Amino acid sequence: MIVALLALLLFPQADQDAPKPVIGPGLLCLKHSSFALLAGERVIRSGGGVETLHLELESPQGRYWIHESDILAAPKSFARRLVETRRDARLYAVGSDGYMFRGRLPESLHGEADGKPRDRFIASIGGDALRRERQARSVLSRLKLGIPTTENCIMRYQYGWEYALPAET
């Protein structure tokens, strides 16, 4: 009996309800953006809070992360450098392997636009897989700002006060 108890403590059974890994290819839908996950890439961890979402991803080129937030703070002006202007966003380099996305987006509630668009920082991406410029450009080009539609998503990540508070009655 002691041996059985020790075995359970040292070698716990796999959780039957553990989420299945998210493996590319496919589209990841976040609250204010979408990201095209390629074959050979996978989400290894997700988490966050009421106003933020954090994804950790693994690719053949290394690991990287995506952070999206309703309250993403602007980096100090001397710490960022504009590297690209796209139709949906302006990308800024922050540090040696990080980038921030700024765009004009409305707030969203349950995946729908709610209010007038405002210009703000929405997402950031960084990690070892972005240390080389060519790899960084490949990853950065796959994040698109805008409230995504859900029909093409292999996974939808939701966060916000509307999911944390009880429904109005």
How would you describe this structure to a colleague?
By secondary structure, the protein is mainly beta. It is 12% helix and 43% strand. It contains three helices and 14 strands. The strands form three sheets. An eight-stranded antiparallel sheet has the order 1-4-5-6-12-9-8-7, with no helix packed on it. A four-stranded mixed sheet has the order 13-3-2-14, with no helix packed on it. A two-stranded antiparallel ribbon has the order 10-11. Strand 4 and strand 5 (52-59) form a beta hairpin. The chain is globular, with a radius of gyration of 19 Å. The model is unreliable at 1-18 (pLDDT under 50).
Total tally of structural domains:
1
Mean pLDDT: 83
What's the alpha carbon Rg, rounded to whole Å? 19 Å
Order of helices and strands: HEEEEEEEEEEEEHEEH
Largest sheet report: 8 strands, antiparallel
User: What ranges have pLDDT less than 50 throughout 5 or more consecutive residues?
Assistant: 1-18
CATH topology: Protein Transport Mog1p, Chain A
Structural class label: mainly beta
Task: Give the amount of beta strand, in percent.
Answer: 35-45%
- Label the overall shape: globular
Number of strands: 14
Helix content: 10-25%
Our count of helices gives 3
What is the terminal-to-terminal distance? Answer: 52 Å
CATH class reads Alpha Beta
Query: What is the CATH architecture term?
Result: 3-Layer(aba) Sandwich
Q: Order of strands side by side in the largest beta sheet? A: 1-4-5-6-12-9-8-7
